[in-house]
Amino acid sequence: MYDIAIIGGGPGGYAAALYAHNFGLSVALVEKERVGGTCLLKGCIPAKAWIESAAVYSTVAGAAKFGVIVPEPEFSWPRALERKQMIVEGLVEGLSGLLGSRGVDVIEGFGRISGAGEVAVTKTDGTESRIEARSVILATGSEAASIAGYEIDGRTIVTSDHALDWTEQPDRVAIIGAGVIGCEFASFLAEVGTEVHLFEMENQLVPGMEPEAAKVLERSFRKRQINMYLGVGVGPVKTADGGVVVSYGDSSVEVSVVLVAVGRRPLTSDLGLESVGITTEKGFIATDAATMQTSAGNVYAVGDIVSGSPQLAHVAFAEAIAAVTFIATGRTAPVEYNAIPMVVYTHPEIAWVGRTAAVAVAEGYDITTTSHGMRGVGRAIIQGEIGGTVKVVAETDGPILGATVVGPGAGEMIHELMYAVGWEALPSEAAAFVHAHPTVSEAIGETLMAAAGRGLH
């Protein structure tokens, strides 16, 4: 009998398996494909590999403005694809080796709960085996969702799963949904020369983030001739000689492929949840936020299947740690959901943590907001990236509640503000620390000083 059986080898599953080693627990990890999950195989890692290739191409193409004269570059889609795949395979191999070195038994097959403390594993050849465990962690992740009228065929109507493996660069793409995934694809595809049409039912890009950040991104997209249709719904797709037609209102646009990026849905069907009395709501599983326990005491859930939890790999890591800590010690290590950093890897990059101004007001806070643009930041000017901004949301005469960074390295800089939000620092406390000059992060220092009532510039 194992101490823990884990169903799903993505970020939540493999993190739980690796962390259990710290407590000397025996672990069986059941995975129907390869370890790594959506993040490593079909999401975070391959997407960011594409984004990085596009960024390098864009940098070289604009090298003349830095005084570097080079021949006009050519973007090689096959070579970028090859590099993406090499990165993914290298990380999968490394993860597999790490799991082996930690004594994790990786069992290939589809896992489902077959009873209290029991997991049935169906292999690809149809044979079935059973394993017993004192605790079970569900980490089955999610899959790309679609909408009515857009049946995914993997060719002309695709999800991000397919788009990350396109063997040829598409010439015209319609992207349905301008959330994080849709905007990241729009940004990198436009950067390498694809004609992009981006549709969003809400009135801003990446609904839910600070409107100021959305406006900066919108200006950047417009400058790169990305066609945006905000506050617009789409009609059912139609086929055409040259590709497919997306209708909106009384108008339409013809493209070669449609990328549906309307979110992700949890993978919880056929897991045998009913055998231990676990119910779902829209496929999501309710858990105790401090322990990740489900209604069945020895069954835990982590990652994209958890009700109310952000569908992010780093959240799955943290939830895995919380579950394993409780299993091993009986002590809680709850996730600090109020201080989870979010990053959109567009150009410019956008990151935020904690509450936006709108959320803080809706929750009843009396707030003050302070912003500082990148136009006066020396390092941002040197890098040619002056379109960004930093915004801090604080309770009036109270702690920092949230912050947003737009600009170069935003995804790295946000962690400074993560600590400020997580530790409920006052603006005056955070402003007391000195930022190196010249750095882009000086914009954070300037914003904090202004928030403390003593701005410098």
List the helices and strands and how they pair.
Elements: E1 2-7, H1 11-20, E2 27-31, H2 37-42, H3 44-61, H4 77-101, E3 105-108, E4 110-115, E5 118-122, E6 128-138, E7 142-144, E8 157-158, H5 160-163, E9 172-176, H6 180-191, E10 195-200, H7 211-223, E11 227-230, E12 238-240, E13 243-248, E14 251-255, E15 257-260, E16 264-266, E17 280-281, E18 284-285, E19 299-301, H8 313-329, E20 342-344, E21 350-354, H9 357-362, E22 367-373, H10 378-383, E23 389-395, E24 400-406, H11 410-422, H12 427-431, H13 442-451
Parallel strand pairs: 1-2, 1-6, 2-3, 6-19, 8-15, 9-10, 9-15, 10-11
Antiparallel strand pairs: 4-5, 5-6, 7-16, 12-13, 13-14, 17-18, 20-21, 21-24, 22-23, 23-24
3D architecture notes:
The protein is globular. Strand 1, helix 1 and strand 2 form a beta-alpha-beta unit. The longest helix has 25 residues, at 77-101. The strands form 6 sheets. Strands 1, 2, 3, 4, 5, 6 and 19 form a 7-stranded mixed β-sheet that branches. Strands 8-15-9-10-11 form a 5-stranded parallel β-sheet. Strands 20-21-24-23-22 form a 5-stranded antiparallel β-sheet, with helices on both faces. With 457 residues, it is α/β, with parallel strands linked by helices. The chain has helices at residues 11-20, 37-42, 44-61, 77-101, 160-163, 180-191, 211-223, 313-329, 357-362, 378-383, 410-422, 427-431, 442-451, and strands spanning 2-7, 27-31, 105-108, 110-115, 118-122, 128-138, 142-144, 157-158, 172-176, 195-200, 227-230, 238-240, 243-248, 251-255, 257-260, 264-266, 280-281, 284-285, 299-301, 342-344, 350-354, 367-373, 389-395, 400-406. The protein contains 13 helices and 24 strands. The protein folds into 3 domains: 2-144 and 265-337, FAD/NAD(P)-binding domain (3-Layer(bba) Sandwich); 157-262, FAD/NAD(P)-binding domain (3-Layer(bba) Sandwich), CATH 3.50.50; 348-451, Enolase-like, domain 1 (2-Layer Sandwich), CATH 3.30.390.
